Structure formats: C-alpha cells, structure tokens
Amino acid sequence: MSLILLLSLGLAAQDPLAVLTVDSASPYSNYGESVAIDGSWAMVGAPDDYLTANYMGSVYVFEKTAQGWIERQKLTASNPQGFDTFGHTIEIHGEVAAIGAPGPLGIGPGSVYVFRYDGQSWQEEAVLSQTTGWGDDWFGYSLDMDADRILVGSMWSRQPGLNFGGPNHAGAAWVFHWNGNQWVFEQELGASDMAGGDLFGSGVALNGDTLMVGAREEGDESGTNPIYGMGAVYVFERVGGTWVEQQKLRASDFSDFAWFGFDVAAQGDWMVVGSPGKTGGGWHGAGVSYLFRKTAGQWNEYLKIESAMDGTTGNFGRSVDMDGNLVVVAADGKDYLGNSYGAVFPFRWNGSGWDEEPAIAPLGLGPWDLFARNLDLDGQDLIAGAYLENLPPPLSPGAGFLYDVSPQFHLMLNPLPLDVQEDAKFILRHGIPQAPAWLAYSLQGLGTTPVPPLGVSLDLANAQALDVMKITDAQGGAHWDLVVPANAVGASVWFQGLQNGQVSNPIYSEIR
C-alpha cells in the first residue's frame, strides 16, 4: 500500500439532461412530487394544484423531440373535487397512463384515472375505484402498470372483523385488466395474515404474472417483545387466472419501524424493497434497501444496500425502481459532494454483483427543495422530482430532473467517510481500457485546473497528482489502495480521476 497525506470521500452531482419546469401550477401545487417516464413521454404530478378548489391536482405531460423535452398538455380529472390530490402517483406504459388520486383528505375512497394517447393528445379513458366499504381507502396511493394490467394499492382500506373493528387500516390492493375494449376489475388482494394497521398496499409492483404488495407497518405484536412497523412484502402469482399469495418476505435483520415495503419494484427475477425507517450508521431513519432474487421458485434476500456515507443519509429507500441491470434508490440527506436535501443512489449489476455508482443530485438545493421524493427509471433515462421553492418568476415551484444513467467514467471511494489510519480504496470504472489513468486531489475545493497533455481540465482548484499512474484493465477499471495518516484528521479534500480526454466525477469529504 501507498501512504498518502490526506484522504476522504464524497461523490459528485451530475448534470441533468433536462429540467422540466412549468409556469401554470399554483404556488403550493407540490409540482414534482410524482414523476413517470416511458420512451418519449414524461409526466410530472402537481397533486396539490389549486384549480377551482384546494388540492384538486394536475399532471403535466412532456414529449421528447428533436428540439428537446417540450410541455404538451396539462391533465386534470374529468370530475375534480377538492382534496382529490390527482397526480399523487403516475405510471406510463406505452401510450397508456394511470394517475392516482387517493384523496387522503377527501371524503371518497380515491380513484385512478386512465388516459390514452390518441395520436394528438392524451384523453381520459376510464376512472377506476374500489372500496372495502368504509369509503376512505386512499385508493391510488400506490400504483404500477405492466402490459395490460394495473395494480392499485389502497393502504388505508379497512378490513372487517379485525382487532379494533373501526379504522383498522389493514389495507388492500386491486388488479384491473384491459379486455380489448375497457378496463375491467379483476381481483381484490389482501394479506393472508392481515391485521389492523399493516398498511398493506403502501407499495406495489407488477411483474408479468407476479406481483408484490408492501405492508410497511406490518409487525409481530405477539409475545412479550412485540415488534411494530417492521414491514413485509407479499408475493402473489397468477395461477389459472387467479392471483394467489405465494410468499411473505421480511428483512433478515427486521426491526421496529423499519418500514420494509414502503416502496417496491421488480423486474424478472430481481426485486428491490425500500426500508426507509431502518436504523443505520448509529441513528434511526437512515434507511436501507434490500435486493431479493428468485431462485428455484422462491424469493430470497440477496443483498442489503445502503448509502456508504454513515450518518448523513435519511430515508434511504423511500422511493426505489429498477430496469435492466440498474437499481436506483432515493434518499434524503446528502449526496457525495456534501450537498444536502436529497439524492439518487444507483447500483449496477456487473455480471456477478452490484456496484454502487456516483450519487445523483442537482447543485444548489435549499432546505425545502426535497429532491427525489419520487423517481422512475426507463432504460437509461431517470426522472426524479423536486419541490424547488425559489424558482424565479414566472416559473411555478417544483421541477422534474431528467438524467442519463448509462455507464459513465466515474470514481468511487470506500468506505465513506474515511477515518484516519484507515485503508481507502479508490476505484475508477468505465474508463478507456488498458490506458493510463491518474488520481488528482485538491485542498482548496472545486475550481479549474487545466491538464493540457491530456486535453482536459479538472474540476478542482490547484489540483495535484495523487499517488502513481495506473494502467486500466480490459474493462477500463483501475484501483488504488491508500492509507489515511493520523495527521490528516479534520482536513477537507477533493479528488478526481482522469484519463486522456476525460475526467471523472469529483469527490469531497472531511477526514474524521
């Protein structure tokens, strides 16, 4: 190992491909609370938008064109009511969109509105709604689509005959399918061991003939040491035209108020489950997420994933998604440059394991901007919403941020943050194969340092070379194992990787 004078960690904010803003949402619309993307269409929800009454809600439609992303339409419910929160959830599949209006402050059970693109505009096609009988179900609180099916969660649904009989909120989920002419109710789902307060339906995922329903408040209240709010995910499979519960999943390290099942996403034989209340890094609510893999017909926990920066991230797993070989997890707290107020953490399958990649967050966020409250992934396109409080007039508060999450040249460092006299492992990925690579550092922060021989400029002020040049492997990767000396405690340092014609993300951290 080499000895270095200073070290620590943090990853860079990434420039968005586009920022989707509008100028016609009301001041407190919560534009950006929900987002969806599929192909050339993106939608951003404003569920608290004031139309003719408070919290009616709206959804803005954007299309990707040769000129960029263009606002095309503002969608509203055909029968809007105050407190409907139309746009709380959004899903797009091809030329069909489903929009949830759970109405948590309203008087009805909630609804899901289905829109279809007719070649000119998006037109409302159906209004879906179900209730277990009490009428305050929050139908549409969670939502997913796959092919010709829609799965709707209503976690506030009350189920008869349970412990305290009144507002027990055991929860429910509902399946609808398109029969070629209309959307038809298919089946109501509930947990086989339902109990009051489980909130079954807090998160849902539809994956072909398999679906998953999260119950984030599910617990074990029996015995002398009850566990509350640990959460569970119920797996159903379609057998002979009927959805049948096959498996109940819990985290292997379940604990009180971890909220496992807060959000869930699945594709093929993989599933990711958010558990944003889980204690981590020594404090409650840091959050984690879990990857499950289906083998021999059973779902088994494969990996627990969390932010590498102990003590800086909250609610890691509040929103999750996956597509192809990529998983994305949203969290409060800091990204790896120390920017607070939310970040998205990508994890990519390398053929044998999952690699964490640089966190994604816009620069310059404020305390109430709330980046990545919700996210959606389509191939290499990521959309994340944010409530941006102080946009200049005439723009309405809020935005949807679009990112390219294809594999890119990047630098990682582990563990985070670093302590003195600790081994630090730098990893460069997706570089030029079998070519020279370098590390640089700065004690003065971000800035510009030209490197004319390589045709690049570093994003660091007065950068200097760190350690020795390495030759990347056949996949464009390189590794440095370095040691943090005792006299580095309290220092702040920034790092960046570089090759001929390209630089990586910069990294920042203080040294503990």
Kindly report the oligomeric state of this protein. single chain
Radius of gyration: 24 Å
Strand tally, please?
Answer: 39
Question: What's the CATH topology label of the domain at 131-317?
Answer: Methylamine Dehydrogenase, Chain H
What would CATH call the architecture of the domain at 131-317? 7 Propeller
Low-pLDDT sequence parts:
1-13
CATH superfamily grouping of the domain at 131-317? Integrin alpha, N-terminal
Approximately how much beta-strand content do the residues carry? Answer: over 45%
Mean pLDDT, rounded to whole units?
90
**N-to-C CA distance:** 20 Å
Largest sheet: 5 strands, antiparallel
Indicate the structural class.
mainly beta
Care to describe what's here?
- The structure is a single chain.
- The chain has no helices and 39 strands.
- With 512 residues, it is an all-beta fold.
- Among the domains are: 2-9 and 413-510, Immunoglobulin-like, CATH 2.60.40; 131-317, Integrin alpha, N-terminal (Methylamine Dehydrogenase, Chain H, 7 Propeller), CATH 2.130.10.130.
- The strands form ten sheets. Strands 32, 35, 37, 38 and 39 form a five-stranded antiparallel β-sheet that branches. A four-stranded mixed β-sheet has the order 1-36-31-30, with no helix packed on it. Strands 2-29-28-27 form a four-stranded antiparallel β-sheet, with no helix packed on it.
What's the short version?
By secondary structure, the protein is mainly β.
Question: What is the fold's blueprint, element by element?
Answer:
Elements: E1 2-3, E2 18-20, E3 34-38, E4 41-46, E5 58-65, E6 68-75, E7 89-93, E8 96-101, E9 111-117, E10 122-128, E11 142-146, E12 149-154, E13 172-178, E14 183-189, E15 200-207, E16 210-215, E17 232-239, E18 242-249, E19 263-267, E20 270-275, E21 288-295, E22 298-305, E23 319-323, E24 326-331, E25 343-349, E26 354-356, E27 371-378, E28 381-386, E29 399-404, E30 410-414, E31 423-429, E32 436-442, E33 446-451, E34 456-460, E35 464-471, E36 478-483, E37 492-499, E38 502-503, E39 507-510
Parallel strand pairs: 1-36
Antiparallel strand pairs: 2-29, 3-4, 4-5, 5-6, 7-8, 8-9, 9-10, 11-12, 12-13, 13-14, 15-16, 16-17, 17-18, 19-20, 20-21, 21-22, 23-24, 24-25, 25-26, 27-28, 28-29, 30-31, 31-36, 32-35, 32-37, 33-34, 37-38, 37-39
